[in-house]
Specification:
It is a single chain. The chain contains no helices and five strands. The protein has 65 residues and is mainly beta. The strands form two sheets. The chain has a three-stranded antiparallel β-sheet with strand order 1-2-3, with no helix packed on it. A two-stranded antiparallel sheet has the order 4-5. Strand 4 and strand 5 form a beta hairpin. It is elongated.
Length: 65
């Protein structure tokens, strides 16, 4: 959180509601007063971040298939 009580980053994890066998990860960052999409990853890919931390998330590792 920043000094105004706002989260500078957030990660949204969206399951495919039809079968729950795939996910979409969306990373958002605060730009001014609004959030902008910074990165997206879907099943079969990875989300690699260098901000706010350095990490790679394999989307399929989040699924229990």
């Amino acid at each position: 959180m920043d000094r105004d009580g706002l989260f500078r980053w957030y990660l949204l994890i969206e399951p495919d509601m039809a079968d729950y066998e795939s996910l979409t990860l969306r990373l958002f960052r605060l730009e001014g007063d609004d959030y902008a999409e910074h990165a997206v990853a879907t099943s079969g890919t990875s989300l690699t971040l260098t901000e706010p931390v350095t990490v790679t998330i394999d989307v399929d590792d989040l699924l229990d298939l």
